[in-house]
Specification:
Blueprint: H1 7-17, E1 21-22, E2 25-29, H2 40-49, H3 53-70, E3 93-96, H4 100-109, H5 139-147, E4 148-151, H6 159-173
Antiparallel strand pairs: 1-2, 3-4
């Protein structure tokens, strides 16, 4: 914990604890920071949930498998499937979709929460401007920033909820 009466210093510390992002500008980083936001209450909850980690991971994997089945034939790119001997915990289930922002708005209007993580690639963040990279330097990163959309994947999702999400995506694409 840091206590200060210096407002500019407090603003800088808040930015540093959130990966260097500026308050009110989520995922836009002015400086390089870190993830320093775990408090005692969060730690207590984590300790209570830790024994359930395997079942939570298994539920996320089941949800991912159901998404793969339900979204078959939809013109989106799904995350790579697990190879034999591999195990993914599916912290996120990120699809790649053209017209991603329009799809996200459509899903929001139909009650489906989604998230766009890292809408600005690292090489275009102000905190890395001194590296000298500009638009076009990393076209794959820029394409991912334009097209990636995380769907709900949390362990408590019911099959009907997954079907609802998939049906909304299918309706958007007319499939």
């Amino acid at each position: 914990m840091v206590v200060t009466s210096d407002a500019p210093f407090a603003t800088r510390l808040r930015s540093l604890r959130a990966h260097g992002s500026t308050p009110g500008r989520k995922y836009h980083h002015e400086v390089v920071g870190g993830n320093f936001r775990l408090d005692a209450l969060q730690a207590a909850i984590l300790r209570a949930k830790l024994p359930h980690l395997a079942s939570f991971s298994a539920a996320r994997a089941r949800n991912a498998a159901q998404y793969r089945t339900l979204l078959e034939g939809v013109p989106i790119e799904l995350p790579p499937a697990e190879e034999p001997g591999e195990r993914c915990i599916y912290n996120q289930f990120v699809i790649r979709a053209e017209k991603r922002d329009v799809l996200q708005d459509y899903l929001k209007q139909h009650g489906v929460g989604t998230e766009v993580y890292y809408p600005v690639p690292l090489h275009l963040q102000p905190c890395f401007a001194d590296l000298g990279y500009g638009p076009g330097a990393f076209p794959e990163a820029e394409a991912a920033a334009r097209t990636c959309l995380a769907l709900p994947i949390y362990p408590e999702l019911k099959p009907a909820q997954l079907e609802f999400v998939a049906n909304q995506i299918r309706a958007f694409y007319g499939t």
